UniProtKB/TrEMBL annotation, chains C, D:
Residues 270-293 are annotated as: Disordered. This is Tryptophan synthase alpha chain. It catalyses: (1S,2R)-1-C-(indol-3-yl)glycerol 3-phosphate + L-serine = D-glyceraldehyde 3-phosphate + L-tryptophan + H2O. The gene is trpA. Residues 283-293 have a biased composition (Acidic residues). The alpha subunit is responsible for the aldol cleavage of indoleglycerol phosphate to indole and glyceraldehyde 3-phosphate. The active site is at residues 55, 66. One of its GO terms (cellular component) is cytosol. Its EC number is 4.2.1.20. Signal peptide: none annotated. Keywords: Amino-acid biosynthesis, Aromatic amino acid biosynthesis, Lyase, Tryptophan biosynthesis. GO terms for molecular function: tryptophan synthase activity. The keyword Transcription does not apply. The keyword Protein transport does not apply. It comes from Natronorubrum sediminis.
Amino acid sequence: ATFGDYGGQYVPEALMPAVQELEDAYERYVLNNEDGFMDEFRERMREFGGRPTPLQRADRLSERYDREIYLKREDLVHGGAHKLNNALGQVLLAKYMGKERIVAETGAGQHGTATAMAAAHLEMPCEIYMGRTDVNRQRPNVYRMRMNGAEVNSVEAGSGTLKEAINETMRDWATTVERTHYVIGSVVGPHPFPKLVRDFQAVIGRETREQIREQAGRLPDSVVACAGGGSNTMGAFHEFVPDCADPRFANESSGRSPRDEDVGLYAVEAGGSSLEIDAENAVAPNSATLSTGTNGVLHGAMTKLLQSEEGQIMESHSVSAGLDYAGVGPELSHLVDSGRVTPVSVDDEAALEGFHRLSRLEGIIPALESSHALGYLEEAHEDLGDLVVVNVSGRGDKDLETVLEETEKRDLEAAPDVEVFDG
Amino acid sequence: ATFGDYGGQYVPEALMPAVQELEDAYERYVLNNEDGFMDEFRERMREFGGRPTPLQRADRLSERYDREIYLKREDLVHGGAHKLNNALGQVLLAKYMGKERIVAETGAGQHGTATAMAAAHLEMPCEIYMGRTDVNRQRPNVYRMRMNGAEVNSVEAGSGTLKEAINETMRDWATTVERTHYVIGSVVGPHPFPKLVRDFQAVIGRETREQIREQAGRLPDSVVACAGGGSNTMGAFHEFVPDCADPRFANESSGRSPRDEDVGLYAVEAGGSSLEIDAENAVAPNSATLSTGTNGVLHGAMTKLLQSEEGQIMESHSVSAGLDYAGVGPELSHLVDSGRVTPVSVDDEAALEGFHRLSRLEGIIPALESSHALGYLEEAHEDLGDLVVVNVSGRGDKDLETVLEETEKRDLEAAPDVEVFDG
Amino acid sequence: MSGDSTASEYDSDVEAAIRENHPALITYITAGDPSLEDTKAYVEALDRGGSDLIELGLPFSEPIAEGPTIQAAINRALEAGTTPEGFFELIDDLDTEAPLLVMTYYNMILQYGPSAAVRPFVERAAETGLSGIIVPDLPAEEADPLREACDDHGLDLVFIVAPTTEGERLERIMSQVSGFAYVQARLGTTGARADVSNATHDSLSRLDDYDVPKAVGFGVSEGDHAAEIIEADADGVIVGSALVDIVAEHGSAGAAPAADALEAKARELKRGALRGGETLTNDTEDTPEPEQP
Amino acid sequence: MSGDSTASEYDSDVEAAIRENHPALITYITAGDPSLEDTKAYVEALDRGGSDLIELGLPFSEPIAEGPTIQAAINRALEAGTTPEGFFELIDDLDTEAPLLVMTYYNMILQYGPSAAVRPFVERAAETGLSGIIVPDLPAEEADPLREACDDHGLDLVFIVAPTTEGERLERIMSQVSGFAYVQARLGTTGARADVSNATHDSLSRLDDYDVPKAVGFGVSEGDHAAEIIEADADGVIVGSALVDIVAEHGSAGAAPAADALEAKARELKRGALRGGETLTNDTEDTPEPEQP
């Protein structure tokens, strides 16, 4: 396994050579910057992607919580979320590997749009698999992908959401593996995907670490990020993992040693409507995998899962489509088990309040995913120390319809009166 | 007048003191950085707004046109367009001036959303006026403004678009002028608005000038920007105006002298469906004010206008709501008359092709406004020299529905097949 | 051709009309609403009703200083095809006791000639016998060209004094007053309002030191308002939206009923003004003792 | 309990079933589709029809290696409430000539016990008389724990050899073959295809040097396909989707007609395999001279 008990390569035999080819490419291009791969990646993320993103002091949240709150502004990355960090990295890697085509899955469409953008930018033919339900409810994202020249295949199986889209993308990959790279959308899947995606996303934490030092003079007491599959989470956390007194987390490869500064890492999962499982229907009304899941194998890796006692994967639920996944990155499972990352969750309502609160107080409309991190900040700020970084992983324009619908059903403190919305 | 024959302060008497108060504030805070105003503005544009934006070499466009094409990525500014540069500057200025409330007009909603964001960020009560037609067709932008805590007032008069919204905002301002600042959305309106807005937007050209020197080693042969009211245009051009051999344009205030490097400045207007006026209905099927307009006074300034022989302002038209305005900034009128800026135009179809072309070739979905600049690049690249900068003033997510609709009506070379859009 | 161009002790017809008919009634309607023919009848009715000065709006498509009532009137006039030339022909055709003023936006004046200049409009205005011009979007700072042209052709250029007009600007404007000072009683756009009194007194008291005719507008709809305004020491009261409302109400009923109603309204307003004038005279002459507690 | 557990010259029941019945027919259906009772009848029919080895799919909710046909069967089985325990009870209850294998995804094996470990599943499988396990998402690299458990309980762990399996990995897998090598004839997921021959020959020729039974699957639906595969030098032919199609077609008609159709299909396939085997023998013994041009 790759991370303690977690990770591995649980894929059909036909894919093993591709996975091993990717391991080799990961080592050469990503770890060793062969042919200047990482230089080109970083350069393109600067010019095309808009990096670095700012670390912004949130004046009104700081006042509200009587401590220093900083926001890492991944919502400003091209495409509107941190997703491009990974998509561009992988499409570029596919090019270096001589692949002629990429495929990717998408749930709400954020990873699909990021991949389509990256593919257009790098002139790589691209097919995206998206569940029928998601196609219907995320039509603007379908349009964006098509505008970027990608093909979008709707997946009719099952509930027509992310899980089915991943399954179908794996099937495509298994058929076309020799010339195709599968741009997986999070720190999930068989090794080396979780490491590869993490390393592409780690720029979030790397920038944050430098910026907070410069702007606040020290490392934060805590970093808060939402966790679905976990790519923005690992991206935000990775550079901070060694920042603790526990010598187990000294990052040997970078020559670091245990730190004096102890940075708490909080992965905020989607609590949905409840943390209780609906056992009869094998449905989880949440996506709180780290908090409530059990170990198993899904989509190529051993990790924590929302599953029935018999091992069937449950349908997960969240108001935020991007967190709505029954698995989670294996490295996060490991970091949770080993105590380095604290798994927490907030429910749909707290996330909606977080959405409205940031929109009104700071003039930033966050993604519903990121709104979970903001919901947790509201609930638990007293436990987070004097200097807190929240990763705003994406912008919320894509979520307006959902938020309106869900706000109408509730009596939310931070929301405007949505009944009289056009003035 | 402020700029040659153009500019001035043609406003109701009740507003004159406010306009003069603003002149004073402009001089103190913007020109002389009193109380560190400009420092705070720049700092907030960095942290909150995401500046600087990249200047990106467009690989595939460069190949297509066999010259170096660079894109100034204003689409990456918080909110999705250059509009925040101005909105944040003015809301902050209103705060420095001790105003307690801001109002703004909006057409398609881009300026309104930018203003609402800035107002939320700076804790300033905010009301936005928007024509009823625009409210109905730009509902997501209404939602965004409301999410940011702004009130949105729909204006029922006339055709219910930008012109009526400006009229109504002026009326509000005339009523509440003592405690209210009017955040005008472009380089239009009475002096000092055209200078004020230009100076807030000039960061575009200032960054571009530095970046192109660093990345290409010299100044560009031409800068291309779309022009409606002209704020992104003046923002992109201002720093380059003195970059020409004509001593009239040496910028005395900055101690510059005429330059060896001659930078061509191209303002691309919306040609709509035709440059011919429909005299009978007093309608211009375009918004090509600089190219076809005549001198007159609208919304506080002497400038070029689309007007009937009798002086009635015409309804303008463009597939791009943000360019759909019968006036234009007075400084642009002056720079056109004096030969420093070349006014050109492309029609709706060329703009749509530009939209699709950039989406497919570069993985950037541009605003329909910016797509006009890209349409002109396609038509006239041979006249633009070896090194060209195009200002991508905003992103096109907001335009997806319009583009789909307009694409379905036409046979566009660069467009995907929109008939089978969901795979 | 209208107005009696009598030589008098005053600088202009306009000033004379106010001074000699003190307290004066100044009325406004939009020309061309619903047609120029109807406007002719309305103006004659207002004249008969006792207007001492009549402002005629030449419609402009972007009336930024008007409230909803006059905006709507302007739209109706434009839809009816009202043009500057038609407007001038109407003026030519009118023969009223009261001098006539044109109220329009600056762009309309600029575009009358071939090349965005003011003189052709002023020449034509003078030719038709108009007595003056009011331009809501032309502050004193931008008015030199138009003032010069007006001076050359013997027309008054009326300036507006707003509640925000203060200090040096107020002095400068008051020193340049031509015809009368159009005193805007409160901030905002034109439009009839139920309550007019409070702001009026403040507005006027700032102008006590200036010996020029002052007429107060913005919000007057009834005879009692007129009385209150005159009591507050105005020389004249300006009424617009309330009259435009009458035009709008009778829009489809033809010109005659509207004209009658306008005449009646003018009469009511003039009576109100006169009543205010009497109160003022009485008050001044015979201030009652304060009651003992 | 099924299969004849005869001691033989072969390492396992599974290998014996293929070697002794050469050319062998290996059939697959999904357990619980549409119910476990029906599955029992279907398995017996496949056994009667001449299957030499029968794979039973234990349904998992995320069957990433299956094509649409078997995906749909798995969904039907899950909707019918098929559980691992029900599955094992079915196996217990079966008495077939052909040894039985379970085909399932790794997570199903892990979750059978209390703590994500493989042994409880393997123990229970051995107890019910299953002869082996096939796990489509368990490559050799991750298989040690399961292989050890299988070894300890005398079960075969069947590995898949894909068209992309090459070089060292191929050698390693072939050296670890237990039961037979499941040769995937082409890239992609399971599913019946009209054309099977071209890829098969290539897939098998790479394995010429390895003396282990080779069975070819992915795409076989007719007797003629079976013949072609055996002609291409396979020891067995694996048929799944074509049988699952029969189950699906007869879904609502009850178990008996489906069982009959399955038995007939198995017979057709076995006959095809035998025909392929004869052709091969004839070809080998008596290769015709090439015709003279």
